[in-house]
Specification:
Elements (H helix, E strand, L loop, with lengths): L2 E7 L6 E5 L4 E5 L4 E7 L7 E7 L2 E6 L2 E9 L2 E2 L11
Parallel strand pairs: 2-6
Antiparallel strand pairs: 1-4, 2-3, 4-7, 5-6, 7-8
Length: 88
């Protein structure tokens, strides 16, 4: 199965929030931060669905084999950054 990699960056002046479903992982990205997801792509269809909640919140639904999805935060392993927020 082919690997899929998708990077999301924050070029705004404040934090943005990215949720990854169906497991509720949520990441706060400060300006300049990048979140990269790596997983096994589906054989057919879209690799990811992206829903914009507002200009600072995204919900991602990766498709394919996502049991071993990797979260890279600024190029480093980042799953432990899920649900760690500096802002309220």
């Amino acid at each position: 199965m082919a690997k899929m990699q998708q990077t999301f960056g924050n070029d705004k002046d404040g934090p943005i929030y990215i949720s990854v479903e169906p497991w509720p992982q949520c990441f706060e990205l400060e300006p300049g931060d990048k979140l990269t997801l790596v997983w096994d792509a589906p054989v057919t269809g879209d690799a990811i669905e992206i829903n914009f909640i507002n200009d600072r919140e995204l919900v991602l639904w990766p498709n394919g084999e996502i049991d071993d999805i990797q979260y890279l935060f600024n190029g480093e392993p980042g799953k432990d950054r899920s649900w760690v927020f500096k802002h309220q």
